[in-house]
Design a protein that fits this description.
The complex is a heterodimer. Helix content of chain A is 11%, strand content 27%. Chain A is mainly beta. By secondary structure, chain B is an alpha/beta fold. The chains are: A mainly beta, B alpha/beta.
Chain lengths: 102, 459
């Protein structure tokens, strides 16, 4: 089996829960941020930019750059790299500034 | 509003050391940090619910961390230190009379603000990574090396299966080693620096054998994974449509590029100090854009200390000793005493600072990087301002400084307030990198501002 970070540190995570991303159900581990949950599912982009409609995801990973903004439970502009995922979170790709149609 | 003798902003190595040293000397301290747990970026903790039984495998200096953690716990137990977690400081102002009022947004949602007053303040707010732009750097999958490490430590996740690590600086080694240990296939480690430059700093390097050993340890870990750093090589372009599919790496001659397939690029060209709060309070910014301090880590503002990366990039060991000096100085000065017995710590500080300066000088950004930035390349990621716009502002409109470029192009006007694009815009424009002076240390919802009452507190 391929090495992974959980194996490296011999993690015994609490039971996974479900969230959705653009309608698809994803498993999330308690304690992980929205960005970590999306990465675990192989998803690297969850925003389309305002001007050029380009994809964005994590860049700085520590809350400085605001590239990873995402809409969670209808609240736009959440930093995915900081916000812990909660059971039942409805995560959607943020289009533009997240307010209304882009 | 709670009032403490000392507030420390930032619970990384510098802030922890400062808070603990001040509490050891009897002060009542508020330690404020944005994360749920202390540690900062260097000791960023794995989320508790993930129950890592061998967390030390992701860290360097774990025993140092255990000592800090236990001393913090003891001081919290005795209520000398109040640890205010998940507080994102957005503004600090002088209090009526003396001291400071610190305003922080609470929790990950940051919809509410809280205030803390203190007689003295230690700024241990750290730094953030500098990434110089290149074609394709806005594609998902390109991220900072430190960001890759932070996501790995906190959430036990990887940015991709096959990762290239590139840029310049000492951070690339531990990041590449950590990613490889955690199961990523590291497709190459490229540092644009010329190793011969280290020869100019033999004295500073030789006086810091423990720092050299740290570097050797990182290199050995890389070698164990069959990797080594290719010096004088840099990533000159990233390819892909919706995400990273490959990068082009070029060597010293710059002409022939080699394409490497990968799904992530972790990149870093060194670090920059966070200085917004210090600037707001009127503290002097010195060389290399860092907060200027004296031998006791005092700024030129009364009762304001600064320690760690905010006073100059130098790594965790230097941050620890600076924090300790700041904490001990604050404990004495705030009670009208002279600090005693700082000499040994100050010697250690000087030695480690010389090492940091040698590294800063020896590691160098890719030569000619600004010329390789194509006109279409987006420099300001927030406002999507291209290199062409910035070049036009300089050549057609006569802009010669970052502020004018911002007003003409919007580069640096977005969410990050120019922290990310500043070095790139300055390099492409050929103007100096000057820190922006912003009243708030981070974006603040209007609702939070509206809540603040006249006493500086909030509902």
């Amino acid at each position: 089996m391929r090495r992974n970070p959980l194996m490296l540190v011999e993690a015994q995570p609490e039971p996974a829960f479900q969230v959705t991303f653009d309608g698809a159900t994803l498993d999330a581990l308690p304690g992980q941020t929205i960005a970590a949950v999306l990465w675990s599912a192989g998803i690297t982009a969850w925003r389309r930019t305002r001007v050029d409609d380009r994809p964005r995801g994590v860049f700085c990973g520590i809350g400085v750059c605001f590239d990873c903004l995402v809409t969670v439970n209808d609240m736009p502009n959440q930093r995915a790299c900081l916000l812990p995922a909660q059971p039942g979170d409805v995560i959607t790709t943020q289009r533009g500034d997240g307010h209304g149609a882009a | 509003m709670a009032r403490h003798e000392l507030a420390v902003i930032g619970a990384g190595p510098a802030g922890l050391a400062a808070a603990i040293a001040a509490a050891d000397a009897g002060l009542r301290v508020a330690l404020i940090d944005g994360a749920a747990d202390a540690g900062g970026q260097f000791y960023r903790q794995t989320a508790r619910q993930l129950h890592a039984r061998r967390p030390e495998r992701l860290y360097h200096g774990w025993s140092e961390w255990e000592s800090l953690r236990d001393r913090l716990a003891a001081h919290r137990e005795s209520e000398r230190i109040t640890f205010l977690a998940e507080r994102h400081v957005w503004h600090v102002e002088p209090a009526d009379g003396d001291g400071f009022v610190v305003h922080a947004q609470v929790g990950p949602e940051q919809q509410r603000s809280e205030s803390v007053a203190a007689g003295g303040l230690v700024l241990a707010v750290g730094g953030y990574e500098r990434v110089l732009p290149f074609p394709g750097w806005t594609l998902p999958g390109v991220l900072t090396a430190g960001g890759a490490q932070a996501m790995l430590k906190a959430g036990l996740v990887l940015p991709g299966r096959r990762v290239v690590v590139a840029g310049a600086g000492p951070l690339l080694l531990p990041v590449a080693g950590g990613l490889a240990a955690a199961g990523a296939e590291v497709a190459g480690v490229f540092d644009s620096s010329d190793p011969r430059a280290f020869g100019r700093h033999v004295r500073a390097l030789a006086q810091n054998p423990e720092k050299l050993a740290e570097g050797v340890g990182y290199a050995a870990r890389l070698a164990w994974h069959g990797l080594r750093v290719r010096f004088r090589y840099s990533v000159i372009a990233v390819h892909g449509d919706e995400r990273v599919e490959a990068v082009t790496v070029a060597g010293p001659d710059g002409s022939r590029g080699r394409r490497i397939e990968c799904d992530a690029l972790a990149v870093s060209h060194g670090m920059l100090p966070h200085t917004e709060i210090a600037q707001t309070l009127g503290a002097r910014i010195g060389i290399r854009g860092a907060v200027a301090v004296d031998t006791e880590q005092r700024t030129d503002v009364a009762n304001l200390w600064a320690a760690g990366e905010t006073t100059g990039i130098g790594g965790a060991a230097l941050s620890l000793v600076e924090g300790e000096i700041a904490g001990r100085s604050a404990a004495a000065r705030l009670r009208g005493d002279m600090p005693r017995d700082l000499a040994a710590s100050q010697r250690t500080r000087r030695r480690l600072a010389a090492f940091a300066e040698a590294l800063e000088d020896a590691y160098s950004a890719p030569a000619g990087w600004a010329d390789r930035v194509t006109d279409e390349t987006v420099l300001c990621r927030c406002e999507e301002v291209t290199a062409a716009s910035v070049r036009e502002a300089v050549s057609e409109l006569g802009a010669t400084d970052l502020r004018t470029i911002k007003l003409l192009t919007r580069a640096g006007m977005g969410w990050c307030q120019g922290r990310i694009c500043g070095p790139g815009v300055a390099g492409v424009a050929g103007c100096p990198l000057t820190p922006a002076n912003t009243p708030f240390a981070r974006p603040v919802p209007l609702g939070v501002l509206a809540e603040i009452d006249d006493n500086g507190g909030s509902e």
